[in-house]
Amino acid sequence: MRFTSYSEGPATWAEDLVNTYNVVRGKEKMPDPAALAELLIAHGIRIKGVPTNKDLERARTLRTALREVFGAPDESTAIALLNRILAEHHAVPHYTDHDGEWHLHVTDPQAPPVDQYAVNAAMGLLGVITTTGMSRLHICDGNRCEEVFVDVSRNQSRRYCSPQICGNRASAAAHRARRKGATL
């Protein structure tokens, strides 16, 4: 599903960061600054050296704020939360032609890496919400799962963060329940 040219990649940045903490099991998947560095680099954020513990805390605070967006009750609330993220992380939208074509950048290239990540993720989610509405932002329906995801399916039918894991678990549980009901 193509939302806007700007939101395609950055919308997944939000889900990737939020899913670095498993709220059901209390498992931290971003335990140190080196793990944050891996996440930033994986999304094309250039860093100078390993992030600090302060950067890690800022990223974890951002993670909590982005989780609130996925769980927001309506578009107005989600957009207000995202606007707050943009303000707190010093969004500076501007157009540039550094590679021969005009396109939008939303942060100063010299901004701290967590600010760059935050603003790009927020803009990605704003692109999704303003193009197709909140119906694309989900928290997994899987039993014992609270991972978040952006539903890019054509008919907006996705219910699980991973069809191979949570979806298969749900199908297996439903099958067991049907078999159990048939034997009674």
UniProtKB/TrEMBL annotation:
InterPro entries in UniProt: ABATE, ABATE_dom_sf, Znf_CGNR
Zinc finger CGNR domain mapped to chain residues: 136-179
Signal sequence residues: none
Name of this protein: CGNR zinc finger domain-containing protein
Organism for this UniProt entry: Streptomyces peucetius
